[in-house]
Structure formats: structure tokens, C-alpha cells
Automatic annotation (TrEMBL):
Keyword Ribonucleoprotein: yes
Native organism: Candidatus Yanofskybacteria bacterium RIFCSPLOWO2_02_FULL_44_18
InterPro entries named in the record: Ribosomal_uL16, Ribosomal_uL16_bact-type, Ribosomal_uL16_dom, Ribosomal_uL16_sf
The protein's name: 50S ribosomal protein L16
CDD domains: Ribosomal_L16_L10e
Keywords: Ribonucleoprotein, Ribosomal protein, RNA-binding, rRNA-binding, tRNA-binding
Subunit structure: Part of the 50S ribosomal subunit.
Signal peptide location: none
The keyword DNA-binding is assigned to this record: no
GO cellular component, one term: cytosolic large ribosomal subunit
Biological role: Binds 23S rRNA and is also seen to make contacts with the A and possibly P site tRNAs.
Membership in a protein family: Belongs to the universal ribosomal protein uL16 family.
Amino acid sequence: MQPSRVKHTKVHKGKVKAVASRGTKLSFGSFGLKSEESSWLKSNQLESARRVMAKFIQRGGKIWMRVFPDKPRTARSPELGMGGGRGPLSHFVVPVEAGRVIFEIDGLPEATAREALRLGAHKLPVKTRIISR
């Protein structure tokens, strides 16, 4: 999961330590997964969480992903010495602040939706909370 095109392949690292001011309420679904701490989420972590939730609900409800990994990260191989500039593009991340809604689910009974979100939360490296309308 990555953007189709990026204007700049290498961006500043930045810090993620604030509390979210936008994206904190449910917009689409009846249940959601909200981050309790700030961190970077990789695209493969988000995709893994989305897949396990989709597999659990099968054809029932609908899942919305409220964040998208659009920040490129670079990495150099571990055996390289100092110097030589910045490494090549490695993967994409999304900076998620505490309080940000990551996933939303609708069209399912409460027990099923909560279990699907719980399974998805296990795939993410941040503490999360399940919220409802």
C-alpha cells in the first residue's frame, strides 16, 4: 500500500508526539479503532490489520481505513559505513497521533464488529481502543 506517485521521494523525518485534533471522531462507521499513543504505522502493518478484519467479517459489513501511508522512509543496508548520503526508499509510513481513528466498521452486530477490531488491533504496534457511536 503506497501512493501512486510522490513528488519528493525523501522527506524530513519529523516527530509524532502531539495529540490528534482532527480525525478523532467516527465519520463513516458505527465502530472504530482509535490509537491511544503516537507512532508511525507501516503500510504492511495496516494492510495486515485490514486483511485479518476483512477475513473475519467475510462478506458482512464495510471497513474504512481512515489513514493512508504517504510518508516515504529510507533505509541503508546494515553493513555500510558512514557517509555516502541517504539510503534508497524502503517503505511508506503514516504518522498517527494519539486519539486518531485508524479503522471504522459498519453493517455488523456489535459483538462481531468488536471482535474484528480486536483482531486488527493485535497487528498494530500501538495501544488502541475500540469506540462506538
